[in-house]
Design brief:
Rossmann fold; Hypothetical Protein, Haloacid Dehalogenase-like Hydrolase, Chain: A, domain 2; 6-stranded mixed sheet; 10 helices; elongated
């Protein structure tokens, strides 16, 4: 068969985009991804999840490019089970931020990640639900003994409380990226690191030009990725701000959104609009 997708890179978000309910991936999406790869395309997933968590959930779904984990902080090769590279937050800065939030927002849970290790500084009912879903090794820690290598931090609480935390971060002018990845999760990464920078790095690693990249997502942390890609697609169930940032809006995650993006890519390639 003609390798019509040769030289193209498609990056998909997982939760709310590729996955329909929980971690369920439809046969429609599975078949479309396999055909995309068979016809020369490169496919991978960009997620806020840590490497072990996303590998467990995607099962046998084929990927033939490094996984983008922790919102562009960590790049992971699934076949070898190896972190290729990562972008930890500057140690002194993130320690200062974590201690500020620990002292000034006593109800907010704090989860600190070093790739697949989760250092739990403080818990609450929201973080209890989150850690039940995590496959990371969980290690208690204290403000005096924080890890030295930190790829991301999650503040976990009700949204109203997290809005106050975010306002504090803005007022302090901390050189850090922060983004809501769920209504009760506010995540911090190194300045300049997000899903958009992750897509750019993966494309460069694979030798693929920006004009031959596509991405699909549903939430705030996907917006940089959709803007970075030549074709940014939002699922129908995406937040309004995400749909606004996208070039196209496809069907919902429950209806096989990734398959529809691949169909749109094929249409554009055959029309000479892409590739």
């Amino acid at each position: 068969m003609e390798p019509i997708f040769r030289g193209l890179l498609l990056v998909s978000d997982f939760d709310g985009t590729l996955a329909a309910h929980g971690s369920y991936i439809s046969e429609k999406n599975d078949a479309a991804i396999r055909r995309f790869i068979e016809l020369g395309g490169r496919f991978t997933i960009s997620t806020g999840r840590a490497p072990g968590s996303i590998c467990e959930r995607i099962g046998q779904i084929p990927v033939n490019a490094p996984l983008l984990c922790s919102n562009g902080s960590t790049f992971f090769e699934r076949d070898r089970g190896k972190v290729l590279w990562c972008h930890p937050i500057e140690t002194g800065l993130i320690h200062r931020i974590v201690r500020e939030v620990y002292e000034q927002f006593p109800g907010t849970a704090i989860e600190i990640f070093e790739n697949d290790t989760l250092y739990l500084l403080r818990r609450n009912s929201y973080s209890d639900r989150h850690t039940e879903m995590e496959t990371a090794v969980i290690v208690p820690c204290t403000p005096e003994r924080l890890p030295q290598v930190i790829t991301k931090v999650i503040f976990v609480d009700e949204n109203a409380a997290l809005q106050k935390v975010r306002a504090h971060l803005v007022r302090q002018g901390h050189e850090i990226e922060h983004v809501f990845t769920y209504v009760s999760y506010l995540e911090l990464m190194k300045r300049g690191v997000d899903k958009g920078s992750g897509l750019r790095e993966i494309a460069e690693y694979l030798g693929i030009e920006r004009e031959k990249t596509a991405a699909v997502g549903d939430y705030y942390n996907d917006i940089p990725m959709l803007r970075q890609a030549a074709l940014g697609a939002a699922v129908a169930n995406a937040l309004p701000e995400v749909r606004e940032a996208a070039d196209v809006v496809v069907c919902s995650n429950a209806e096989g959104a990734v398959a529809e993006v691949i169909a749109e890519l094929e249409r554009r390639v055959r029309s000479g609009l892409l590739g």
